[in-house]
Amino acid sequence: MTIGIMDRVNRLDPADFVALFGALYEHSPWVAARAASLRPFPDPDAMLAAMNQVLDRATDAEKLALVRAHPELARRAGVDPTLTQASAAEQASAGLDRLSPEEYARFNRLNDAYAARFAMPFVICVRLSDKDFILSEMERRVVHTPEQEVRTAIVEIGKIARLRLADALARLEKEAVITLSSHVLDLVSGRPAAGMDITLWSGATRLFSGRTNGDGRCPDLAGIGALAPGAYRLEFGVAAYFRGQGVALSDPPFLDIVPIAFGIAPPVDGKGGHYHVPLLVSPYGFSTYRGS
Which residues of this UniProt protein bind substrate (predicted)? Predict the structure, then answer.
């Protein structure tokens, strides 16, 4: 996984964060919604820890509702319209969609016994199991107390979420990547503008602050990683730069901070792209364009 993936996750607005990660917990997007406010996450482990923190702080009723949101194993695979795509694939990975009549009957019997005792479905991370292990666990856990079994189910749900998170981040990484660069030309000297301050904003959030190098470029911009489609603003410290070059300016200067507001559109070809936003500037005028 590239470093830029977590940068993208941390910059998602809350609605997009929930849309991407709400399915980590079966029919329970509230976990992701609450975790969104705990960002930034330095890595996937920290993100999962934040979601576990949300579960730890949840009420007993919320935890029970989360457990009850899971499907019964085997019985409803391919039949229940509420079965999520993730759950169906997970059950298939353990062979629960290919049971013999005898195995199917045994699952039904154990499902009934478990539901009668706990009033909730049996939950296990099927991707880390096979059908024989699942059946043995159903028989072993049915003697637990209800409190024990809710705790055990929550632990299993955490294992499911970890695997689903890895899948979601892998999908995100495969999506088109968009990067940004800039180059500033001093029209007074006809040379690259070295030492000009540059700041990148997304709304009121500052994403980057840096300074151009001797070639008038800001290579550290690449360190912010991939950018999501949206509206951005580059601000160039023009007046401070020209003062530093000994250029006489009016007071106040005609151009102080030059903002370039630009948009990054969603990629249409699945290949991502690169946005180059140069600035050609003097104390009294500037121009820009989308470069390559």
Answer: 183, 217, 289
Q: Is the pTM of this model over 0.90?
A: no
Identify whether residues 192 and 73 lie together within a single domain.
no
Whichever domain contains 227, its CATH number is 2.60.40.180
Q: pLDDT tens for residues 237-282?
A: 999 999 999 999 999 999 999 999 999 887 665 556 789 999 999 9
Find the domain containing 197 and state its range: 178-287
CATH number of the domain at 146, please: 1.10.3330.10
Give dist(CA 88, CA 77) in Å, integer: 6
**Which residue numbers belong to the known binding site?**
183, 217, 289
Same domain for 186 and 84? no
**Does the annotation count 27 as an active-site position?**
no
Considering the domain boundaries, does residue 169 fall inside one?
A: yes
Q: Is residue 292 part of a domain?
A: no
Pairing outcome for strands 184-186 and 279-282: parallel
Predicted confidence at residue 157, as pLDDT, reads 98
Last residue of a domain, one of 132, 148, 174: 174
pLDDT at 80: 60
Annotated binding-site positions for substrate: 183, 217, 289
Higher pLDDT, 186 or 208: 186
